[in-house]
Structures are given as C-alpha cells and as structure tokens.
Amino acid sequence: MAAPALSPASVAPTLPAEQALLDARFADLARAERLLPLKVTAFYQAKIDEEVAALGHTEGPLHRTAHPTRERFAVHAGHEVADWVDDRSNMRVTGSDAIIHKYPDRVLFMPTSLCAGHCQYCFRQDVLTEQHEAGRTRVAEELGRLVAYLGTVPEVREVILSGGDPLTLPLRDLKLILETLRALPRRPAIRIHTRALAFAPRTFADPAKLDLLAAADVRLVFHFVHPYEICDAVRGVLRELRRRDVRLYNHFPLLRGVNDHAAVIARLVEDLDDARVRTLSVYVPEPIRYSAPYRMPLDRVFAIQDALTTGWPGWANAIRFTLDSPVGKVRREHIVARDRAAGTVTFRREGQSIVYPDFPAMLDVAGDPATMLWRG
Ligand code: SF4
What sequence ranges are listed for the domain Radical SAM core (predicted)? Predict the structure, then answer.
C-alpha cells in the first residue's frame, strides 16, 4: 500500500538528532532486508558534515546519497523487485557470480563486491549483499573463468569491469586482471566503472596504479552524481589521469533530492567538462526494493531532459537519458504504450518488450534546487 503524498510544505526537515536515530534504525533494516549497510569514507563524510552545518538539517544532496532518509523506511512505490535488470539470469558461466553477459558484444566482469562507500540508491545491492554473505571473491579463479568464457564468445569486443568497485582492489589484483585481458589474442577493449574517486581520491594516490590504467588503455567511467563531489582533490586526480592520456567519462543516475533539477545536472556536466571528463548518459533509477526515495515519474525525467536539451550548447546535446531493463537499455523513443491508469509504460527494443512500473506522481516530492545547490 502506497504511503500518502508528501509535500515540502508539510514535511519538516530532518534534524541531526533524528538522523542519528534513522541511521541506527537503518542498520536493522539493512540486515533484515538485505540492503547494503551504511559505509561512508572519512573524505566523503567531511563533505556531508559541511553540508549539514550549512543547511542545519540532513536533507542535503550528498547526505542523501550516503545516509537513509525517513522516506527510505516509509515510502514504497509498489512493483519494486530485488533485481530489476535481471543480473542473475545473465550469469552464464557455471560456478561464477562475477561474469554477466547480457549484450552480444560486451561482457561485465565483477572482480569484487566491495566498494569504497555504499550508495543508498545502489541498484545492485541485492546481488552485492548476496556476494558479501558468500565471502570474498577469489580474483584469480574468476579471472580464469572469464578468460575461458571469452574464448567461446568471439563476438565480445569489450570487457566492462564493474562491481562492487574494481578500483578498490589491491594493485596486484588489478594488474593481474588488466594484463591478462591485454594479453588475450583478441585483446578486448577495457572499460572500468568506478565511484572510488568521489568517495576516496586517495584510492588513486599510487602513481603505479595510474600508470597501469594508462598502459591498459582503459576507458574510466566515473559515477559522479552531484557537482559538489568535484573538488580540488578530485580535480588533482583527474589532472594526473589526463596527463597519462587516460580516457575519462561520467555516467550517473538521476536521483530525487540529489540532482533532479536541470540546474544541478547542468552544473555537474559543465564542471566535469571543465575537468575534461565527458558525460555519456544519465540513467533513470531502477524500480528495486526500497528505491522510492530516489525515483521520480518518467514525465518529470523527460521534463528535466527537455529543459536541458533546449537550453544546452551542442556539445552537451549528445548526452542520453536511459533506463536499464531486462531487455537492455531503453530510451524515450522506445516507448510504444502508456497506461496512465495502471501506471505502466511499455518499451520495445529489438523485438522485445518490457513493461516498466512508473513511479507514482502522488509520491513524488521534487528536490528543492536551493537545497541541492546550497552553495549558490
Ligand atoms: S559504488 Fe556502485 S556498486 Fe558500490 S554501492 Fe555505490 S552504486 Fe552500488
């Protein structure tokens, strides 16, 4: 049963004392419901502390990414599932939970289930929690399975390292993976998805790691979600990566209360572009369990997209808004039907259809741009 609509005027902001109780309560919820527990690096928490001090409450954008809000306990959209993108049915290698093959030309490899910090909105938390319970992944063993599998699928041209966060691996493991892949006869392209730079720039402190990324000619895709994540420490690492000619990109979710306004997205994209990081796409959060605090109706997603594309210069217009789904990534142009009474949207891609349960408008409380951009 959906909770009643909330409106900014009817809800008092969460004060730090109440937040401490919410954090404690969340530890129990995470254990019982198999969500990722709180994990915040000292670096990121310092930014959150600054935000709370400036705002006087805990509804700020960075806080919202890492700590639970009241809505996390109380608001559910209905039709929420554990594994919307269907990772498990695409784990095609017997004995492995680290290899996901969904698209013909690329394979996802998850060499670790660990991340530098945990994101409240993480869409893979069900799979990651299961892997945490099963114990640490043995990198060499899974890599051996990956190499054997790649030998059977010549159409694969790219290996995407994701997770968990591959850049939290010890250097020797990362080296083993990258050098093994580079030595394969068909030499797949390598892409790495990471949020470690937002959480802990010191993850990139070792020049040998940066040299390794450059030597493997990787594409690095960061998941920055808010412009205040781009600070001097982050820019310093980006400079070092650029100096080594590493290709840098960003890809991020549109998150209610974090960045759900054209002004926030524009600031993030422009700050990254100034740092020579190209934004590839913005994705709609998946309807997984307990995701309601971060989701919004597609109509509002499209309104944000339109506000950006009509006001943006040409270099930013190539940024795509996508929704990941069991049939692959779908976009606005893939919509073939909408049932507003039932709250569903049907997408069709390459002959396959998927019915998406849209987020109910009555639960949507848009983020306040003055809070999300509190520095002005
Ligand atoms: S870094 Fe990525 S995989 Fe890890 S918790 Fe955040 S969103 Fe999930």
Answer: 101-322
End-to-end alpha carbon distance in the chain: 38
pLDDT in tens, 139-151: 999 999 999 999 9
Question: What is the distance in A from the centroid of ligand 1 to the CA of 195?
Answer: 7
Distance 122 CA to ligand 1 centre (A): 5
pLDDT on residue 87: 83
Q: Where do the domains of the chain lie, and which CATH numbers do they carry?
A: 8-372 (3.20.20.70)
Q: Which two tokens stand for residue 98?
A: 């680290």
Nearest atom within ligand 1 for CA of residue 196: 1
* Contacting residues for 279 by C-beta, under 8 A, at least 6 apart: 249, 250, 251, 252, 268, 269, 272, 273, 316, 319
pLDDT band at 136 (very low <50, low <70, confident <90, very high): low
Would you say 285 and 295 are in contact if contact means Cβ atoms under 8 Å apart? yes
For residue 141, the one-letter residue type is E
**Cβ neighbours, 10 Å, residue 179:** 12
Residue 138 above 90 pLDDT? Answer: no
Minimum mean pLDDT range among 16-20, 64-68, 153-157, 323-327: 323-327
Q: What percent of the chain has pLDDT over 90?
A: 83
8 A C-beta contact, residue 283 and residue 321: yes
Residues with CB under 6 A from ligand 1: 36, 115, 118-119, 122, 124, 163-165, 195
Asked if residue 116 lies in contact with residue 200, where contact means CB atoms within 8 angstroms, the answer is: yes
pLDDT of residue 7: 46
